[in-house]
Q: What sequence folds into this?
């Protein structure tokens, strides 16, 4: 569900004959079936009508008479029925490509036979580029509207993160949709998987922006002027999650923030640890500490932490381990000794 904001309008045209075609990102041989209607809408998910009936898209790849893959495309573990990766296949180029055949049986929507060179001018995924004040965004063609919306939101997240981190990054962020995994980010670069960000996602739903914001958190964590210079994953993953949570709160409000906190990996191990003294996840522990500090002292404590962490004053802490430096600095800022909590949860 999505509520239009004031003065925002949305008109939707859809229908007509479907035009399915194979689209390939050569990196890790990522193969997608793009099914457009007459208006250029892309069918991003598909649920077979009866419960125990799985989609069956018989798929075969062969080269010089040798079968490289044969099976049901829809049941390869990947990004759902229309997108999968075959890293063991590649890399192939135009002129050196295997052939493919697919029986795309969409039942009530039609039965389509697709075949040809796996890598060709027709099948190579085409990209468009969008530029905004802080991003250069390269995304698969045909998703203009979603890309514009995502980028508009990324700019808002950027502003929120810059306000916590003490300023804008020195360089624009290069944002590409071409990797096999959900997301990656650091330095001045971030990437998302096409299947994660565009296929089967409603980009108007906060859930769909969790990964891009997390990756932007990594970019802010590692890029000048605010290089945290602290260890992964115990600190950096949780810091990226924490920055993400502040971003979702800024845009969607405190209810979504609570939901987002509930999704944090590892956080439940802390609650269980306090109840039953069970082992804890070190990363989850850091997330717990970030959130406790914010709840009690406000975002400002993190702003001040970052300011000192990047200043000469941090030199005074250099004989300590990184964990102790973090504990000491937060204790100093809060006026309370947090080292017992760090020793119990993070060491
Ligand atoms: Zn991460």
A:
């Amino acid at each position: 569900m999505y509520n239009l904001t004031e003065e925002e309008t949305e008109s939707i045209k859809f229908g007509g004959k479907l035009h399915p075609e194979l689209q390939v990102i050569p990196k890790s041989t990522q193969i997608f079936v793009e099914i457009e209607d007459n208006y250029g809408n892309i069918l991003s998910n598909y649920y077979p009508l009866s419960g125990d009936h799985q989609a069956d898209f018989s798929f075969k790849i062969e080269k010089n008479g040798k079968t490289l893959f044969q099976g049901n495309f829809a049941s390869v573990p990947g990004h759902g029925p229309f997108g999968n990766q075959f890293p063991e296949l590649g890399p192939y180029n135009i002129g050196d490509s295997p052939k493919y055949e697919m029986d795309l049986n969409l039942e009530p929507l039609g039965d389509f036979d697709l075949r040809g060179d796996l890598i060709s001018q027709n099948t190579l995924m085409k990209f468009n580029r969008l530029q905004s004040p802080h991003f250069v965004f390269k995304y698969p063609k045909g998703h203009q509207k979603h890309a514009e919306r995502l980028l508009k939101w990324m700019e808002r997240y950027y502003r929120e993160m810059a306000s916590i981190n003490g300023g804008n990054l020195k360089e624009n962020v290069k944002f590409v949709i071409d990797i096999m995994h959900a997301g990656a980010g650091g330095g001045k670069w971030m990437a998302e998987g096409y299947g994660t960000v565009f296929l089967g996602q409603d980009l108007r739903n906060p859930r769909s922006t969790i990964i891009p914001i997390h990756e932007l958190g990594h970019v802010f964590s590692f890029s000048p002027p605010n290089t945290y210079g602290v260890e992964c994953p115990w600190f950096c993953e949780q810091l990226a999650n924490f920055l993400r949570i502040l971003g979702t709160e800024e845009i969607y409000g405190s209810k979504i923030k609570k939901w987002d906190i509930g999704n944090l990996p590892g956080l439940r191990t802390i609650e269980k640890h306090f109840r039953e003294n069970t082992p804890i996840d070190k990363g989850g522990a850091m997330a717990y500490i970030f959130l406790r500090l914010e709840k009690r002292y406000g975002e400002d404590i993190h702003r001040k932490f970052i300011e000192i962490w990047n200043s000469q004053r941090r030199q005074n802490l250099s004989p300590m381990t990184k964990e102790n430096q973090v504990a000491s600095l937060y204790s100093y800022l809060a006026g309370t000794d947090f080292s017992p909590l760090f020793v119990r949860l993070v060491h």
Notes: The chain has ten helices and twelve strands. The mean pLDDT is 85.
